[in-house]
From TrEMBL:
This is Rho GDP-dissociation inhibitor. The keyword NAD does not apply. Transmembrane segments: none annotated. Belongs to the Rho GDI family. Keywords: Cytoplasm, GTPase activation. GO terms for cellular component: cytosol; membrane. It holds the Pfam family Rho_GDI. InterPro entries: Ig_E-set (IPR014756), Rho_GDI (IPR000406), RhoGDI_dom_sf (IPR024792). It comes from Phanerochaete carnosa (strain HHB-10118-sp). GO terms for molecular function: GTPase activator activity; Rho GDP-dissociation inhibitor activity. GO terms for biological process: Rho protein signal transduction. It is found in: Cytoplasm. Its main location: cytoplasm.
Length: 196
């Protein structure tokens, strides 16, 4: 039996980072490309000083049509200092069993361009992985109007039953890009209940 040849080595090397102005001027004569770049906030003169984080997650929210109007499940993530991370880790949210819900993320691109940004969430129970969510956020530039971006994830259904309700679930959430840069990394927990 012959063995397969080894996979080819990748020789891709990313180019040097460019400013928003430099990207805006590339292929400026291509009208459709110019419109696409404008949709990402890549327009001449839109460059902002490149200081501080490129990406700031503002909040993560759980949205469900069955949730009472006066009830919200929102994580304020604007400050990810160590005391805030410690407080989030100790916070346990209650999610109603057997309901449809989706996750909504609000974030801001502060400068530059981010590409291939993903939200990755690993859920464990008794230290055993029970679920993983890997959701593409996309590629973005600074919002042309300076407003934050809002991304609604696919609808899911929460588990139900006595076994699902017993105990709590620990979650590790991360926001990363194609290059492996980690923009946010935090832990939290939830439990399932008969009511919100």
């Amino acid at each position: 039996m012959t063995s397969l040849p080894p996979p080819p080595q990748t020789c891709y090397k990313p180019g040097a980072a460019k400013s928003i102005d430099e990207y805006a001027k590339l292929d400026a004569e291509d009208e459709s490309l110019a419109r696409w770049k404008a949709s990402l906030g890549i327009v001449p003169g839109a460059s902002t000083p490149a200081s501080g984080p490129k990406f700031t997650i503002l909040s993560l929210e759980l949205v469900s049509p069955s949730m009472p109007p006066d009830h919200t499940l929102i994580m304020d993530l604007q400050d990810l200092s160590q005391p805030k991370l410690d407080a989030l880790k100790k916070t346990t949210f209650t999610i109603k069993e057997g309901v449809d819900y989706n996750v909504r993320m609000t974030f801001r691109v502060n400068h530059s361009i981010i590409s291939g940004v993903r939200y990755i969430q690993i859920v464990k129970r008794a230290n055993i992985k029970v679920d993983k969510l890997d959701q593409m956020l996309g590629s973005y530039g600074v919002h042309p109007k300076g407003e934050p971006y809002v991304k609604n994830f696919d609808t899911e259904e929460s588990p139900s039953g006595l076994l699902a309700r017993s105990g709590s679930y620990s979650v590790r959430s991360r926001v990363v890009d194609d290059d492996g840069e980690v923009f946010a990394d935090w832990e939290w927990s939830f439990k399932l209940g008969k009511e919100w």
